[in-house]
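In response to reviewer comment 3 from the previous cycle, which asked for concrete evidence that the modeling workflow produces usable outputs, we include below a single protein chain processed end to end. The sequence was submitted unchanged, and the resulting structure tokens are shown without manual editing.
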Amino acid sequence: MLGNLFKKKPTFTPAMQELFVKISLALPQRFHFLQKQLTEGIIKGIKKPEGQRYQLRLDIPLLNKYEDKKGWNFLIENIIIQSVETGKSSVVSWNVAYGLLLVYITANNDFLKWQAEAVGIDTSRICIKYLDDSPIEKLLSKEDGNI
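The workflow returned the following structure tokens.
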């Protein structure tokens, strides 16, 4: 009993995992690679937020399995998650880099308390913002880029 007193509570519950899987499946097909990672339990926790950014703690063996060292660094913005029960909604962005979901960004973290089966997910207004320069831009000088 005393051992449980000092045991840290998990910060990423099975209900949260189910919700993230549901979000991944609502995204366009090209992002469904995230679903497999999430289903396998790659997210182990959520670090202390920095403003509206929540960095995810990942399972190291699964990180090594799914990491794509040549993968793009991008944001999937404007994922709208709405509680069917309360009507409240949260707008969430996912930062994906190296083929891994590393960070989520939101002003309203309440969505983590909602059950996956009781939310609607609207991805009709998502926007993809690449955070890396494209490979062609890296090859061109500033003068060449103005052609």
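Helices lie at 2-6, 14-26, 33-40, 60-66, 135-139, 142-145. We consider this sufficient to address the reviewer's concern, and the full set will be provided in the supplementary archive.
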